[in-house]
Specification:
Length: about 100
């Protein structure tokens, strides 16, 4: 079991530096670091249009100061390869839980 000491919100509005409002799957406040982390889940990556939209979303986060692997983390799945709890735990460990 992972010890998660953080405040999180599901699909909470987040205003980017460029003024655009986005709704990440999860926003997590790491209280000890006073830092916001975004977690996105891409659940239909076998759909090319969906995949392209979400790759653009990651690019937009980066353009607004959220660094992938530091501030933005993601999970993904396809019909052939569904998301597993092992993958979720791996992402949470990368964040620091």
């Amino acid at each position: 079991m992972l010890d998660i000491n953080a405040v999180y919100r599901y699909e909470n509005a987040l205003i980017l530096k460029n003024g655009k409002v986005v709704y990440p799957d999860f926003t997590v406040l790491l209280p000890e670091e006073k830092r916001l982390v975004i977690i996105e889940h891409f659940g239909r990556m076998d759909d090319p249009q969906y995949a392209m939209r979400n790759m653009r979303k990651l690019q937009e986060y980066a353009e607004n100061g959220f660094i992938p692997g530091r501030d933005v983390f993601f999970t993904m799945e396809t019909k052939a390869q569904p998301l597993t709890s092992t993958q979720i735990k791996a992402v949470l460990r990368k964040i620091g839980f």
